[in-house]
Specification:
By secondary structure, this protein is mainly beta. The chain is about 5% helix and about 40% strand. It has three helices and 35 strands.
């Protein structure tokens, strides 16, 4: 499959001095340089910046979720990263820094039960594979763990009200290993899933040593042992007696020195102490989960009869979920209409090709519950129907199989051709089945691939001076690869006004009238921003080329 990498960048200039303001005013012009772009307004995470300017971000179809774990915050509001270690926690962060030359080494003086380390990815991810890498032993001296287990957890407690996580075995090294440095473990779903569904929902990863070579890490010569190894790196010295049959039998040093017959004196082996050094743990996922950061970009998620809990299905926390009634008491077999739906606004446009739904297994009751019985996934790029509603295109239809009205399939993958979209909609029926049936979505994950097809940046208010200024032309320089374009437009005005927002002590925004009725301890902050006032022009048409005459009215102050 060829993925489109052509993108369209929509740059909206609002005449809004220095890098902090996003522009520079000179004698006869306003200048925007590459160091100004970051001060402009745009949906979070949609634009990348470097010394060459700005560009749309790239949504990947495969990422190592351990590398950016520190940018996500779990339900405890702690950033992701290395969460715990049985010993040497101080250098454990090295295993997720992307640098194979740094490492975590358990304390050799600690008991084997303390040779473990735990990673918190900061959010639940759909992980396909976990790769465990030890230092190479050449450029960086060290050994793999002689034997270890790989454990994963979605974040669910081991049992009700437990503070201990429910970890499951995801893999282990075979035998006693001293040579293999890289281990790859393909993950499989822990619960019932669609046929072909590969991977599992993971937030926490543990590496646990189950055996140690201790003082017999690597065999070395007597000269290296005596002259090159530091005192704390010297391992065991092993002595042997050669039996008449030729078999070597391990003995202690005194016994070895007491052997007078040189033919019976066996070899002496020298060892470097075991240096178990874990370099990297990589958690490879199906890509960037676009729904996880939708709200940060100004997007939304809501149902037909919104209860306000829908965001729990895209918060990256496996312990929370959105619950919905999909079956009601009444005449069994009677089906209601398909007017029930869930809508997600991703907050920006993406090339989208997959939506995974992880249903709540705890909702199962008898023969019913757990997952939505049937649903249709549709996409919209924001185009409107004649009545003004969003125009959606159906992409996948998920139908219950095996004659089950409420199937017990908890991991469901909806895959479709790569499509430019911003809005996703899931329509589902509610049945009358003689009992109350609920289904919950723990995580609803959206994936895609490619540069964002469209990105919008908007400047702050640019003050042209105390007196109105006449605007003449607008010019720009840009690198626009084939299939891409930059579009710029302006608006102008003379008056500004204050826009005040009021909040409760819980962060909820309320009207000014309601805010004034709150008790003092119920009141939160109020914020003031400056916005265009009366008499501002509408947005101009997009300027056809650099050097075009500015069509917004002037002279103006802003």
């Amino acid at each position: 499959m060829k993925f489109p990498i052509a993108v369209g960048i929509l740059l909206l200039f609002v005449f809004s001095a220095g890098a902090e303001e996003g522009y520079r005013v000179e004698t006869n012009r306003v200048v925007v340089d590459e160091d100004h772009w970051q001060a402009w307004n745009f949906p979070a995470g949609t634009v990348g910046f470097d010394e060459r300017g700005s560009r749309p971000q790239f949504a990947s179809s495969q990422i190592n979720a351990a590398l950016d774990a520190h940018t996500f915050f779990s339900a405890s509001e702690e950033p992701g990263g290395v969460r715990k270690a049985g010993s040497n926690l101080g250098n454990a962060a090295n295993i997720i820094d992307g640098d194979p030359s740094t490492y975590w080494e358990p304390d050799p003086n600690a008991p084997l039960r303390d040779w473990w380390v735990e990673i918190d990815l900061g959010r639940t991810v759909w992980a396909r594979k976990i790769v465990v890498k030890f230092v190479d032993g050449v450029e960086v001296e060290g050994d793999p763990l002689l034997q270890f287990r790989l454990l994963t957890s979605s974040g669910l407690p081991a049992f009700l009200q437990s503070k201990t996580l429910d970890f499951i075995g995801a893999g282990r090294s075979e035998g006693l290993n001293k040579t293999q440095r890289v281990f790859e473990f393909d993950l499989q779903p822990n619960w019932e899933a669609d046929p072909g569904f590969a991977g599992d929902q993971v937030q926490y990863v543990q590496i646990v040593a189950t055996a140690s070579a201790s003082g017999q890490g690597q065999a070395v010569s007597a000269q290296i042992w005596e002259e090159e190894l530091a005192e704390d790196e010297r391992g065991d010295v092993v002595y042997y007696r050669r039996e008449s049959s030729g078999v070597l039998r391990q003995i202690d040093r005194a016994q070895h020195e007491a052997i007078s017959d040189e033919s019976q004196k066996g070899p002496v082996e020298y060892y470097r102490r075991e240096l178990p050094r874990l370099a990297e743990v990589e958690v490879w996922t199906v890509g960037d989960n676009l729904s996880l950061t939708a709200l940060e970009r100004g997007g939304r998620i809501e149902g037909e009869h919104s209860k306000g809990s829908e965001p729990l299905s895209i918060d990256g926390n496996y312990n929370s979920f959105w619950n919905e009634q999909v079956g009601f008491g009444g005449l069994e077999g009677m089906e209601l209409d398909m007017d029930h739906h869930l809508v997600i606004d991703l907050g920006s446009w993406y090339w989208v090709n997959r939506m995974a739904i992880i249903f709540d297994r705890t909702a199962v009751s008898g023969d019913h519950g757990g997952a939505f019985p049937d649903y249709v996934v549709s996409l919209s790029d924001g185009s409107l129907n004649p009545d003004g509603s969003l125009a959606y295109t159906p992409m996948t239809t998920h139908t219950a199989v095996g004659g089950l009205k409420f199937p017990k399939i908890f991991f469901q993958d909806n895959f479709f051709p790569l499509t430019r979209a911003r809005f996703l909609r899931m329509d589902y029926p509610v049945y009358i089945v003689g009992s109350w049936v609920s289904a919950g979505i723990r995580e609803l994950q959206v994936y895609g691939h490619g540069f964002l097809p469209q990105v919008t940046l908007e400047s702050q208010l640019i003050e042209l001076g105390v007196s109105p200024r006449i605007l003449s032309t607008i010019e720009w320089e840009a690198d626009t690869p084939p299939g891409t374009q930059i579009q710029i437009r302006t608006r102008t005005g003379d008056e500004l006004k204050e826009d005040i927002h009021y909040f409760t002590n819980t962060g909820q925004q309320v009207t000014e009238a309601k805010y004034r009725k709150l008790l003092s301890f119920q009141k939160g902050d109020s914020t003031v921003s400056i916005i265009p006032g009366a008499g501002w022009s509408n947005w101009s048409k997009f300027y056809p080329a650099s050097g075009s005459t500015i069509t917004s009215p002037s002279p103006r102050r802003y």
